[in-house]
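Exercise: predict the fold of this chain.
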Amino acid sequence: MNYFQPKPISNFNVTVDIPGSKSITNRALILSALSGKTVILKNILLSDDTKYMIDALRALNNSIEIDEISKTLKIIGNKNPKYSNLNLYIGNAGTAMRFLSSYLATGTGTATLYGNERMNQRPIKDLVDSLIQLGVEVEYLSNFGFPPIRITSKGVSAKYVKIDGSKSSQYISSILMAAPNFRNSIEIEFMGRIVSKPYIDMTLAMMKDFGANFTYNKNLVHIFPQEYNIDEYLIEGDMSSASYFLAMALIANSTVTLNNFFKNSIQGDSKFLDILKNLGLNILAFDDTSITVKGVPTYEGVELSMNDIPDVAQTLAIIALFATSSTRVWDVENMRIKETDRISALKNEIQKINGYFTEFNDGFLIVPRSLKDYCGNVLETYDDHRMAMSLTLIGLKVPNIKILNPECVSKTFPNFFKEFNKIYKEE
């Protein structure tokens, strides 16, 4: 049995290193490819998701050189690519599946995008509907509305497209990034209640950094044909990955310094720090690229919508187990179409340790119990990196927790357990 077993600990002082952002790395790779120029990307994340993206871009004749020691990547982009009967495997990398679809639309040829079993259960219809509006031919090769898909494109000449962003903001980000390489000026209208809107704001901020100009008014973006133009780009530390160590400080009443934590982050998950500050987390030091925080002996629960930051809802769920009052989270229905159904998965595993978890369609309620009422158990991770990293935090308080298949963290944070284990080296 392959597992990781954390052990209870508190009142430690540790420094951890946060990896580069997966979301920013994959956006930067696509934007660099779309530029058709030579771009140096610094502080890149090398993980399963970004490697799938890199492999696909290489297959599409983008030249990519990587220095793993300095975490630097040199890419010579292939603008408006030409391709023929390509098969691109992207594992369970949602950003790769969605962003590559629109990159292919800017070029000419036929290509198939496919992933693992779970990827083929994750909806893509809203993006496909928009690609079809743009004049791209898209064929479902298995189940309607889901990957794998075959894309045939001759470039995009459309002048208007609407996109439903109620399931994933990545559909919108995908079209936005590709739009400067379309043949005509285009209006892009967002439909439905947008989930994870900060990720759209991040996409637009990066497009601007890469040299794009556009107008943005409420749910309408106007973009005209133009060239991305940038020489190098620095990728922030990953705020989703940072969430586990911010939570660690609070749960274990300890001091944690996070390197590669950007003070002026463009990532929506940076808002998680504000939530924890309201629970009592103390900021001891904060400069441009690092932060030191200190936990407290006790803290209350919280009630809030996490529609903007659903990727850190699991982290908050574990924090909630050790609070002094209940926690209610809502507006996170799209957690169900991530690497696993994260709401149901949290319920399954929290109940295994004798926790109280009520599942709603769009969220959950956790009523904390006294520490002596929780029990150790073997916890499943569902091949979901965020399940593995969040559930590990339970072991800071509860003995005999075993986290199965911990290697799934390689999706976004290959060194997670190495960084986590630093807390025991301080003893």
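Check your answer against the key: The chain has two domains: 3-20+237-425, 22-234.
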